[in-house]
Amino acid sequence: MFRYLMLAGLALFLPGLYALGYSVYQGPSAWMVDSQTFWGTPISLFVFWIGLAHAGTLLSAIFLALGIKLDRRTALIAELSTLVCLVFAAIFPLMHLGVVKNFYMVVPLLDARGGMANVCSPLVWDFCCIAVYALLSLFFFAIHLKSREIPLLEKYRKPMAWLLFPLVLWVHTIVSLDFATTFVPQWRGAFFPLYFIAGAILSGLALVNLLLCTEGYRVRLLERLMLVGSWFMIGFWLWEFLTKGTFCTSAFIFAGVLPQLRIVSFVREHRTGRIFLSLSVLLGLFLERYFLVSPTQGSSSAAPFGWVDMGLVALSVGGFMLLFFGARRKLSLSMESEGTYFGEVDGSDMAMVEEAAREAEALSREKKRGIDLSYIQPWSSDEYKVLHLPLLVGFAAALVFSLWVSAQLPFAASPYENIEVAFANIVPLFYPIAALIAAGELLLAILHHLRQSPDSAHVTFARRISTIFAAILVVFAAVAGTFYAGGASRASAESVEASPLNVENPIEKYIREMSNESAESLPATMDSAEIKLLWNARCAKCHGVDGRFNEKFVREYYPVPQKLDAARIDSLGLDSLEKVVLDGRVNMSAFRGRLTEAEIRGLVAYMRHMAGDLSSSSAGDSAAVDSSAVDSAAAGEAP
Amino acid sequence: MGMDRREFIKSCSLVAVMGLLYGCRKSAVLGDIASQLSVPELKRFEDEVRLAMSQAKKTLDLVKVPTPCALKIPGASTLNRFGMAIDLDACDGCGKCILACNLENNVPLVPDEDAARGRFMHWVELRGNAPFMCAHCGNAPCERVCPTGAANHTPDGLSAMMYKRCTGSRFCGANCPVQARKFNFNDAQKLGLARQFNREVPLRDKGVMEKCSLCLHRLQNDRLAFKTKLSVAATPEDAEWRGRGVKTACAEACPHKAIVFGNWLDEKSPLVQQTKDRILYAPRELAALDPSVVFMRGSR
To answer: Total structural domains in chain A?
Structure first.
């Protein structure tokens, strides 16, 4: 069964891969883009898949945190589907970029030039939230998977669930803010976060129900929740229709009307019927996302929905099937016999299990009546004891990060000038960072516990995990270091020339006149005041008025230039410095044709002169190179 | 098929060597071929402007706005805020400004299918039979959502673009209420659609956003010239650069002098003097965003 589904997935995935390659090569004009929002299909698919990715954590973590019973197999399937969905939710925003290789500029980390992502942008929030969500979901899934072999892990599941509970709602709120913070009239509305969360939950439930059909059993609770979810969506669609007058009929039919067929027992009791209901909801919600992301689709300015768009849809659907069922099959095959590893329910109808559970619960409730044992003070619960220190540290780290980021915002005269404004814009990053740090601490705690345990298998397991994480950290540090250092940019002289072809540049004219004058009125050519003016006009923008580099300008636009200290200038020699000024170097523009030889010599001498001033320690050196040296160096050009 | 370790290592190193050789090739060869591709005739640019004008939106919804004053962004200059006013009484919609802008800023042509959809790269376009371009809003929504900070505000009030920092997320385009931003869907240089008329302005790569820069390079040239000329003799009031005498390409090209460029904070600027007793308008969507480029009509 899983193998056939995998093959079907592969059959969809391969042509999809071609479409992906083509659209990365061709850029955003390859797919359906409407002229108003410039986004089109990939972003519809992104919103769709990030919605599906909520199923796992929602069902598993929130149910666990709230104490709703869900059997291990269903929970694991939901968590696995989350991870696979996140892969595709990550591919689409990456591939939709105009300059894919610049994606790392979205990460809110400083680089050596002082370049920093704009943390006020919802896209940056998006990137961080989803990255953290993916990491934590993976962690949660791994704990759950291993908890049967290592019972100690069971203790950490509920704290992780509490950590993920707000995060899952947070992520989709942020995704909705991508839209709701803009000026596109169709995207405005304070209800957008709730609307998006409801849509995400509904599509996630539909996906899990569909996956359960392939497992051969059903969970009535989830089916009922799907029905209730569709009522919520109908409410939101009506609200949107009443406030904005937009209505997506196809989404309403597929995700609003058709799911109501669950009340017909014939549909509900047959697997085909249940598959139909889930597929209908998924289709409806995809159409809805499509309608939402491209408000002007169908108008003449939008490109038509072409084969690339179909290919992208096929890529994600096929890729999901391939990855999910591949992983599902692998887990069943390699670990234990099929079915039993994932849970004790082996294909039988869940209704009996649910019934039994309900009876057992009713029994226990009757027993407890009179003595209120069910309520535990929140501050004395086990989860709180495990979680309180990591969360405290997490929030402290998030606070420090937010303050640091606020100081990096451009245009603040003093670093903390607009701290309250900046801070309000960073709030969306706050919880994900805290959760990430807290989860990291939980991981450390788990590893520590495992090492203490008497079972030698646990100790080796812990050691293996620590090694893997150390390796990952090293790789991450290397990547981050590379980003921090940045590459050399192309010298601007290659693409731009300072003088236009037809009109004479006023500066050039001025310089020409100046040099003509100087040629006539021989040796005194450039006096130091003139050179200083020239330096201030042409060089100081990057190198600074005093020869130290101009940090404010440089860190915004260019890589850091060389510090012009005496030792460096002397090691290079004046001749080669003149060459550098003439022909340019890595990021330094060439000034040939823009400065005369005399001016360049004057500038180099001036540079040396300033360097002498800077190195106050070598007093004799600076005495030798004073302003007279500037004059003589400049004069040396015209004997 | 069997492959022993020796063979495996051999083929691996072969591949590595080939890769190295490929990396060592002279990239200039490819660059030369690209630059030898035909540059488009000037006539094609003129034709495209005519086509764009025929497809232009006929209406422009204007509301009254007050005269722009100093920016409220921290770090903004209190001396300069550059902007323009477009005189709707003088403008007859001839479209000369569009061509002038295209040639000044090396705005590329677009392929036919884009032109059919009205997806031109023109920084200036006609709306309601008057030139329309980025308004350089003081409170620009596009800059707020740019994830990398490529769209930024200069202290002098220009909404500027750092092309090298742009990652092409197009969020700014989605958030511009008047769609003044243009996205480079095509590699115009490779398709032979770009021509560098003005060597001072770089050609933009595929995948970045661009828009009206208020002829930033002209302002920068003037600033440089000012600083170079600045001598001890300068009177204190002239000691600061105010961008006097600079004109944008569109303002220069206008036969009716309907486009006035200047410094909103400089009393001597033609912009302040000519808008003094006129009523100022801005597109309805932008009125609340403190635009620097406004329209004027009638007199107070």
So the answer is: 2
Sign, Cα dihedral of B285, B291, B295, B297:
positive
Q: What pLDDT score does B37 carry? A: 58
Q: Are A343 and A30 in contact (CB under 8 A)?
A: no
Partner residue facing B201 (CB), from A97, A489, A496: A496
> What tens digit of pLDDT does each residue of A72-84 get?
888 888 888 999 9
Q: Is residue A445 part of a domain?
A: no
CA nearest to B223, candidates B270, B292, B150, B158 = B158
Contact between chains at A412 and B145 (C-beta distance less than 8 A): no
Q: Which of B76, B143, B170 lies closest to A98 in CB terms? A: B170
CA angle B155, B160, B164 (to 5 degrees): 125
Residues of B in contact with A102 (CB under 8 A): 148, 165-168
Residue B54 maps to which CATH number?
3.30.70.20
Q: For position A246, which CATH number holds?
A: 1.20.1630.10
Tokens at residue A513, please? 């006149």
Question: Into how many domains does chain B fold?
Answer: 1
Residue among A35, A183, A411 whose CB faces B75 most closely? A411
The residue segments making up the domain with residue A631 are 504-635
CA distance A29 to chain B (A): 5
Instruction: Pick the last residue of a domain from A327, A355, A383.
Output: A355
Nearest-CA distance A185 → chain B (Å) = 9
Q: Using a CB-CB distance cutoff of 8 angstroms, which residues of chain B are in contact with residue A183?
A: 141, 175-177, 285
Whether residue B162 lies inside any domain: the answer is no
- DSSP E strands in B140-212: the ranges are 151-153, 159-161, 182-183, 209-210
The predicted model scores a pTM of 0.78
- Among the listed residues A73, A56, A70, the one whose alpha carbon sits nearest the alpha carbon of residue A165: A56
Q: Which of A24, A29, A552 to mutate to test the interface with B (most CBs of B within 10 A)?
A: A29
Domain boundary among A312, A331, A355: A355
What ipTM was estimated for this complex?
0.82
Is residue A508 one of the residues assigned to a domain?
Answer: yes
Asked if the structure places residue A145 within a domain, the reply is: yes
Q: Residue A509 has what pLDDT?
A: 57
Q: List the single residue in A98, A496, A538 with the smallest CB-CB distance to B208.
A: A98
CA-CA distances (angstroms) from residue A283 to A13, A165, A196, A214, A609? 18, 27, 16, 18, 73
Q: What is the pLDDT of residues B114-134, one digit of tens each?
A: 888 888 899 999 998 899 999
The parts of chain A modelled with pLDDT lower than 50 are 336-349, 371, 411-413, 498-503, 517-524, 555-558, 615-639
A426, part of any domain: no
